[in-house]
Amino acid sequence: METKNFKIVSSNSSVDWTGRKVTGAHNGTIGIKEGNFVLNDGKLKSGIVVIDTATIKILDITDSDTNAQFAGHLASDDFFSIEKFPTASFDILTAKELSNIAYYLEGNLTIKGITHLVGFEAAVENSRNVISLNGKLIIDRTKYDIKFRSGNFFKDLGDTLIYNNFELDFNINAEAIFSEQSKN
To answer: Where does the record place the Lipid/polyisoprenoid-binding YceI-like domain (predicted)?
Structure first.
């Protein structure tokens, strides 16, 4: 059985986020700090993706003052408590192969120091020494103590209500890690 380790190339990977509210949605990006995947005989077995919460960006708000104010709010304790929790992570515990490129990934998602088991489908393409992983994870933010304007915790929010679920769209690229011995 051949085991290969792949290191995430942060500069060639992205995570897009979307949060919805009664009156519309906001979207943006967030950076990947580091991570890796392990493949056995060409099949994904495990891995970890570490998100750099300080890199969160809002793409749909073009006014710089409003954008900065919103970014500050996302960094606050109402949302991601970035100062206390500079990273979030997804630790893949199982990767069930659904087809040649489709997997159901299940693992521990940790946000704000709170961990829950989550799962989602992902496409994993393996071209020898490079793999790409693409998938969408839908998260109930209230499970991670992100309760701001949630209808589960506050009454009469009207059109200021923010829906509990938000989406993370992963587009991750990783390269094989070669030891000095395997290069010979």
So the answer is: 5-175
Give the side-chain half-sphere CA count within 13 A for 53. Answer: 22
In order of their start, the domains of the chain are 3-183 (2.40.128.110)
Rounded-to-integer distance, Cα 58 and Cα 64, Å = 10
Residue 125 host element (H or E): strand 114-127
Calculated CA dihedral for residues 76, 80, 81, 83, nearest 10 degrees: -100
Q: Which pLDDT band, with edges at 50, 70 and 90, does 128 fall under?
A: confident
Q: 28-78 pLDDT, tens per residue?
A: 999 999 999 999 988 999 999 999 999 999 899 899 998 888 788 778 777
Residue 39 CB coordination number (10 Å) = 21
